[in-house]
Fold:
Amino acid sequence: MTPLADVAGLEARLGRTLTGDERTQAEAALVAASAQVRAYGLPWPDPVKAPGIVVTIVLDAAERKTRNPEGYRSETEGGYSYQLPASLPVSAGLTPSEVTQVQRAAGFLGLFAVPMESLGGSL
Structure:
C-alpha cells in the first residue's frame, strides 16, 4: 500500500534533501509508520483522503526513525551527554498519544449504543 506521507514532506521537516541510502531508509520508515497507523486506524487506501492528523503522525514517526536510525536512547562523548525520554519510541513506532489520535481520526473512540437482542433490541 502507498505510504500515507511522502519523502518530500519528510524532507521539509528535516530541512534538507535526502539522497542515496538515507532516502531509501526514509522511504522504508514512511512505509513502516503508515503500516503502524493503519493497524490502529483505518486502511486509508488513498493517502490524499487520509485525515491531516494521520499524515502528521506518519511524518512524526518517520522523522524519529530517520533522525535516529540505530535507535539510540542516549549518547555520551567526553563531558557531553544526551538522552531521549524512555517513553519516546526510537523507531517508526507510535506513542500512546499518537495511537489515541489515530483511533479518534478513525472514529473508534467515543460513546456507542449497541442494541442487545436479549434486552429487546434487534441486531
